[in-house]
Design brief:
The chain has 154 residues and is α+β, with helices and mostly antiparallel strands. The chain is built from three helices and eleven strands, in the order E-E-H-E-E-E-E-H-E-H-E-E-E-E. The radius of gyration is 14 Å and the shape is globular. It comes from Pseudomonas synxantha.
């Protein structure tokens, strides 16, 4: 699964494409042992009309709070990664959304996830991406305004 891209689709034919490099990095944080803590970061990529392509991620680091079933992405390095990608790409690469892990095979958002996304992830005129990396599967959704719509693996 890590040598190729992973693609999801919405009900309108819009695609979410996760390129191999960020996919491999996220999968490296899967919670495969009982002492693994949740990990989180941001998704960085480009918007191609209705399609979103993830080219980079930020990874856990200093300032983040990580526990078995909780993560709080607080480190300033996440925003730095977005800023540097935006500048180095002349604005092509930008913040697309959030990713984090769950210690379950087939993840789904918790009530904490849903509440946090509704309060803190502002999806105005741009759709935002939400990913949860489980031990065996990845859950993906788009947030459009206040509506969170799960995506299907293509």
């Amino acid at each position: 699964m890590t040598d190729t891209e992973l693609t999801f689709t919405d009900k309108h034919g819009g695609l979410l494409v996760i390129t191999p490099s960020p996919l491999k990095r996220m999968l490296a944080y899967r919670q495969l042992s009982w002492f693994s803590t949740e990990a989180a970061g941001v998704l960085i990529g480009e918007r191609r009309g209705p399609h979103l392509v993830v080219h980079r991620i930020s990874e856990p680091g200093p300032g983040d709070i990580r526990h078995r079933c909780f993560v709080d992405r607080r480190g300033a390095h996440h925003q730095t990664a977005v800023d540097e990608a935006f500048i180095s790409s002349s604005g092509m690469l930008q913040y697309l959304g959030e990713w984090h892990t769950h210690p379950e095979d087939s993840p789904s958002p918790s009530s904490t996830d849903l509440g946090t996304w509704q309060r803190h992830l502002i999806a105005g005129h741009e759709k935002m991406v939400l990913l949860i990396v489980g031990r065996k599967e990845i859950w993906a959704a788009k947030k459009d305004a206040r509506i969170i719509t799960p995506l299907l693996e293509a």
